[in-house]
Design brief:
One of its GO terms (biological process) is iron-sulfur cluster assembly. Keywords: ATP-binding, Iron, Iron-sulfur, Metal-binding, Nucleotide-binding. With 381 residues, the protein is of the alpha/beta class. It has 2 domains: 271 residues, 3-Layer(aba) Sandwich (Rossmann fold), CATH 3.40.50.300; 30 residues, no CATH class. The protein is built from 13 helices and 14 strands. The strands form 3 sheets. Strands 2, 3, 6, 7, 8, 9, 10, 13 and 14 form a 9-stranded mixed sheet that branches. Helix 3 packs across helix 7, helix 4 packs across helix 13 and helix 8 packs parallel to helix 10.
Length: 381
């Protein structure tokens, strides 16, 4: 059962707190490579991170012991910053373009609509799309005495992203690994997340520095506060049904096994394309016959005709077969729905905005069931 709605007094208190925050004259700056702020020297990753390649001190760092005082301070900072976060989830996929940010944003919107307090940490540092999907483009990070304040989408949904720190929306983020690691560390030590039921971490494709850093930093904070779950409650892995995607996602599942992150399940995105005939165009030999086809379908079958196609045709035993191979749950199929795309473009929640739309019925139900299963597996009390 979802928790009761947030009391109005709590909502007003949150609004009052945000109103008291002081806007920064310039966005908070991530550590620069020139200053060494993004270097992982003194941590467990020194000399081993992707960005250490080409550094003249790589071999020396790799062969020397990390600074125990710095490690202890990092653990304490992360433990303090995340101590009021009940559940921490990674949204992963080895493949780009399968809809990780789509699934992450819509999980966050749906959980938020049920009354849960949700934070989203966008660590897709070079391609941060979360602000667009949450309707927060152009917003500014604030700071207070307790640190950076994330951008609030609504009273119980907040977001932090590299995009809020760029001077221009289309600026390229050309950073080496250590600088990325430094920013992820700042997200986990300097952001005032407050009390959250869920923190969702939206990751880039692959199994590289951003993933390793996030896992290690969250785990180090859990070591400090004695957490038994390793700092991460689980991962939701996103794929599309074709083999090109699943071959990369299998690598992500192996990554989770290697770093001991429990996989809560796999979401099959863009499973089936389904839309009404009113949104389609029909041609024959280059001639537009849309009106004739619509009239014929309406006369013969009525107004509720939907078009359906498996654009991303599944390979072999499909996503279910991959889940069986890795002994993980298949959480559900989310259709390739133009209404879902529109919600992401406009920064809206799909399950709320498209409730009652026939062509979106399956997708809305699937996403609600996925959230039901996550809440069942990770109760927040």
């Amino acid at each position: 059962m979802p928790p009761p709605p947030i009391p109005s007094a709590a909502i007003e208190a949150a609004k009052k707190k945000r109103a008291s925050l002081t806007p920064v004259t310039a966005p908070p700056q991530p550590p620069t490579e020139e200053e060494g702020g993004g270097c992982v020297h003194g941590t467990e990753m020194q000399g081993k991170a992707e960005g250490c390649e080409g550094c003249p001190s790589k071999n020396q760092c790799a062969s020397s012991a990390p600074n125990p005082q710095l490690i202890q301070k990092t653990r304490l900072d992360i433990s303090t910053s995340t101590s009021s976060i009940t559940r921490k989830l990674l949204i992963l996929s080895g493949k780009g373009g399968v809809g990780k940010s789509t699934i992450c944003s819509q999980l966050a919107f749906t959980l938020s609509s049920r009354g849960y307090s949700v934070g989203v940490m966008d660590v897709d540092i070079c391609g941060p799309s979360a602000p667009r999907m949450f309707g927060c483009v152009g917003r500014t990070i604030h700071h207070s005495s307790s640190g950076w304040s994330p951008v609030y989408v609504n009273e119980n949904l907040s977001l932090i992203s590299t995009a809020f720190m760029l001077g221009e929306a289309d600026a390229a983020v050309v950073w080496r690994g250590p600088r990325k690691n430094g920013l992820i560390k700042q997200f986990l030590t300097e952001v005032d997340w407050g009390e959250l039921d869920f923190l969702l971490v939206d990751t880039p494709p692959g199994t590289s520095d951003e993933h390793i850093s996030t896992v290690q930093y969250l785990r180090s904070g859990a070591i400090e506060d004695g957490g038994s779950n390793g700092g991460i409650d689980g991962a939701v892995v996103v794929t599309t049904p074709e083999e090109v995607s699943m071959s990369d996602v299998r690598k992500e599942l192996n990554f989770c096994k290697k770093v001991k992150v429990p996989v809560l399940g796999v979401v099959e995105n863009m499973a089936t394309f389904k839309t009404s005939t009113e949104k389609c165009k029909f041609t024959k030999e280059g001639k537009d016959i849309t009106e004739d086809v619509r009239k014929l379908l309406s006369e013969k079958f009525g107004e509720d005709v939907l078009l359906e196609s498996d654009i991303f045709a599944p390979s072999g035993e499909g996503v279910q077969g991959m889940c069986d191979q890795f002994k993980v749950d298949h959480l559900g199929k989310v259709n390739l729905d133009p209404n879902l795309l529109k919600c992401c473009e406009e920064g809206k929640g799909y399950t709320e905005s498209c409730k009652g739309k026939k062509e979106s019925e399956e997708g809305v139900n699937a996403l609600n069931k996925i959230v039901d299963e996550l809440v069942r597996k990770l109760p927040v009390g």
